[in-house]
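## tool: complex_structure
## caller: assistant
## args:
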Amino acid sequence: MTLVNHQFRLAARPVGMVKRSDFNYVEEPARSPSEGEVLVKTLYLSLDPAMRGWMNEGKSYIPPVQIGEVMRAGGIGKVIESRHAGFGVGDFVQGGLGIQEYATVDGKTLAKVDPAVAPLPVFLGTLGMPGMTAYFGLLDIGKPQPGETVVVSGAAGAVGTVVGQIAKIKGCRVVGIAGGAAKCEYLTQTLGFDAAVDYKSEDVKKVLRQHCPKGIDVYFDNVGGEILDIALTQLARKARIVICGAISQYNSTEGVKGPSNYLSLLVNRASMTGMVVFDYADRYPEAGREMAGWIKSGKLKTREDIVTGIETFPETLLKLFRGENFGKLVLKVSDE
Ligand code: NAP
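## result:
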């Protein structure tokens, strides 16, 4: 029986926010695997802010998605046919599946997922790429010490929630910056952050200063723009800034706005360092084991925002840029 594979292929390079017309929603038969390949039925897809950058022309940390290609996405699926010795029918796997219902991929690019460890969508969030980003960005670059003040922006999202909770585990004072009262309440009441700043309704500069009386030792930046510029004015001596992302800039049609308060790095003998999670790929198992332990012991809580239906992809992706996702944004494609 031929399997019909619905896919989103990039049709145009977006200008500003992504639109449905930037993609073609097409169908084609799923391809049978060749030697070494595996045919995977997609169950869940990870929707990430970085996807917006992958649609742009030009050099970045990975090549752009080409016009006509299936939109790149990480996902979790179930093996339905295998010609790779490492995988059997029924195995759950994760890898670069793309925005499509079936993916025929080189077995070397897949990893098995054990659903006994956590529900499958968690492997796209806390135990997946965003969790790894939080873990290595905070611990390797932020290097938080007990008693220090850690501030994280995009705090209620996939990366931010994990950053703040790990910082608490490490004995820090943690302040999150997020949009809206519900997200801020979640950070303090459910995740145990010491304080939260609602950047949509509060004076960030003033409230952040109240919550960080000794200054900021580690600023984990997910949003860039004005919030980064404000954080720069409140650094403690020898502060570390982790440049993880700059979502406020990803849809800009006027170019990226850089921080103007960077001389604070000089005054405070501080550092600002960019990080890309893929550089830590050989250490993911180590981080995964530790975080799975924290989840099991209740020290690390996970939250996923699951939207069903591959056909909703363009509009669901936009939730990230409108702040409408609450936790890791996951697109459910098929039942387990
Ligand atoms: P996320 O935080 O789950 O979702 C994005 C959130 O960003 C939204 O919910 C929204 O929350 C906030 N946001 C959107 N537009 C904003 C704006 N103009 N100003 C301030 N906040 C805005 O996404 P994520 O997957 O965890 O990613 C967070 C950041 O990490 C992104 O910048 C991403 O590119 C980066 N990242 C980097 C790496 C790496 O290797 N360097 C890896 C993964 C992710 P509010 O409701 O709070 O506004």
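## assistant note: Residues 48-50, 129-130, 133, 154, 156-160, 178-180, 183, 222-223, 244-248, 275-277, 320-321, 323, 325, 329 surround NAP (CB under 6 Å). Residues 58 and 296 are 42 Å apart (CA to CA). Handing back to user.
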